[in-house]
Structure to design on (242 residues):
């Protein structure tokens, strides 16, 4: 599932920054075709089932992937959902959410920390329970509806911010704004699973090969 | 505000560097 997400993120970045991804001179359609081929291979490895292009994008036509529950469209929407949450946290500054046991500054690092542990929590929830395929329905709707959904999601979070923050902090105990480490380092692993950070790192490092 | 391919806020991927750590620069180069 993580590899599937990696390919979807890679596609978005490679289309916009082909040179940085070693795809200089390659047209957008070719990049997308190559990524789609890798995604189909991933599904085949996972399920022993060969699927077509349309099935890759639409969960409804391949219900036999219940153990995977991953679709390209659903995963891409999940990435955009994560970006939306990160942006909302950054814009709000959250100066009023002040745990009594901690000195809470108003720097951007607090917003990023909350966004990272939120990403980690919802990634685990989708990976372990619902599956990213559950997002494919709304992901297939028009942009205004998706934006409305994201706005409603953030509004719900915002008006329940204290219990929300307490819940996601409990999911990543010990991870705070001053010690959060989302990247793999030579001397230590990450202390929180942030898919977007690990994917960005793996895309950029030369020793991480494309699937 | 967001300008990169994933529409992440600036600094979200690059704020986590340590002395001697080049990860931030690597990711900055990517985006």
């Amino acid at each position: 599932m993580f590899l599937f997400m990696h390919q979807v993120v890679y596609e978005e970045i490679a289309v916009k920054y082909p040179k940085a991804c070693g795809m200089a001179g390659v047209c957008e359609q070719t990049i997308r075709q190559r990524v789609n081929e890798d995604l189909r291979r991933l599904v085949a490895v996972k399920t022993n089932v060969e699927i077509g292009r349309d099935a890759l994008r639409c969960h409804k036509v391949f219900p036999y992937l219940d153990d995977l529950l991953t679709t390209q469209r659903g995963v891409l929407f999940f990435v955009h959902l994560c970006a939306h949450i990160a942006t909302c946290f950054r814009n709000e500054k959250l100066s009023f959410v002040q745990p009594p046991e901690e000195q809470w500054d108003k720097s951007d690092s607090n917003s990023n920390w909350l966004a990272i542990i939120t990403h980690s929590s919802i990634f685990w929830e989708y990976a372990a329970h619902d599956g990213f395929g559950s997002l494919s329905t709304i992901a297939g709707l028009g942009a205004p509806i998706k934006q409305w959904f994201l706005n409603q999601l953030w509004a719900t979070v915002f008006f329940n911010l204290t219990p929300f923050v307490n819940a996601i902090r409990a999911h990543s105990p010990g991870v705070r704004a001053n010690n959060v480490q989302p990247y793999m380092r030579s001397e230590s692993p990450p202390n929180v699973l942030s898919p977007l950070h690990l994917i960005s790192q793996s895309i950029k490092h030369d020793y991480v090969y494309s699937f | 505000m967001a300008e990169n391919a994933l529409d992440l806020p600036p600094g979200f991927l690059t704020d986590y560097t340590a002395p001697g750590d080049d990860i931030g620069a690597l990711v900055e180069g990517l985006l």
